[in-house]
Amino acid sequence: MITEIRGVQFENKGAELMLYAVVQQLKEWDEKNVVAMRAKVGSYSQRAQAGVSQLLWSDKTFPIIGSSPNLALNLIPQKTKDRLGLVTYSQIDAVLDASGFNYSDQWGLEKTNTMLDLAVRCKKAGKKVIFLPQAFGPFKDPAIRKSFSKVLSYSDLIFARDDISYKYLIDIGGDSSKIKMSPDFTNLLKGIPPENLPQDIHKRVCVIPNIRMTDKTSDKVSGAYFHFLESSIKITRAKGLNPLIVVHETCDIELAKALQNRFDPSLEIIIEKNPLRLKGLIGKSYAVIGSRFHGLINALSQGVPCVATAWSHKYHMLMKDYDCFECLLTDVDVDNEIEQKINIVTDESLRDELVKKIQTSSLKQKDAARSMWGEVKNLLY
């Protein structure tokens, strides 16, 4: 079976974790299964290291004759394609979309229309289209709502990652029998502790910033977010813990550097290329103060307590799923509120019970992710 994986990338470590999780699962089913990515995503070496083949595909057509370069790609000899790890679209059996959060009013019409075009082509060619667990909606914009409604009609299985996303999908209409719920599936991946792990990692608090907290939120939240990060570091240090800035996506680097400049060089920044090592680092830490969804998943799935901020409903639902909704910070501009949330994850009298709740929830979430993969397998085989 040859499957295209969409919506993943190498700049965002959460998206890369989803890629690793898909490859791991399909190879467990059958070592001969092939996972392919479009050649425009990442470099050849990045794709090869992740264990995926190179999917040759062009969305362009020749303006005069109206044909696609993809027709020419199909003429490449099979031996050549096998030797170079190349796959053409005619070989694809199914498309797995793991975009995470691409389809909503917040991201505009283009992403939805692109997926609609692909879903239509796949349906005509008899290829399966499956949306792996992700956040969806809202769909208040009429054009986006109409377009994604069509996407649903051409898809075979859609997993919402939370109650709110599920309701948004059901509200659009269509065949509700193929709309299901399942948690994020990267929770099944095991982290690998980095070789240069700080010796005091058990006293380290990972601070994971997110630039989306400044451009996808209200003016009030956007304006207060940097203050929240500063306050978190000051409060953490006052408790005798050692904060560590962890970059979970490349676009957050400048924010991390600006935060470091407000303190001193001893406030270390970690930029880890390997997402499994990043997960290993987080899993060994004392706590997390984070704004990246998969940074929080990395923590919670390993029983590490965390304080979370939110720029979409997916964060609220995540903290609810792991039975630690009290750790979600809604007022990033209120110092007392910030300190109160950090106390929950750092004060031993509160922390022990919190960790137990998270660990229990983590087991349930992993069981649900395994069940999701079972449904996907039943559809594909």
Describe this structure in words.
The structure is a single chain. With 381 residues, the chain is an alpha/beta fold. It has 2 domains: 2-189 and 365-380, Glycogen Phosphorylase B (Rossmann fold, 3-Layer(aba) Sandwich), CATH 3.40.50; 201-363, Rossmann fold, CATH 3.40.50. 47% of the residues lie in helices and 14% in strands. The protein contains 15 helices and 13 strands. The strands form 2 sheets. Strands 4-3-2-1-5-6-7-8 form an 8-stranded parallel beta sheet, with helices on both faces. Helix 7 (163-172) links the parallel strand 7 (157-160) and strand 8 (179-181). The relative contact order is 0.12.
Summarize the structure.
The protein has 381 residues and is of the alpha/beta class. The chain has 15 helices and 13 strands.
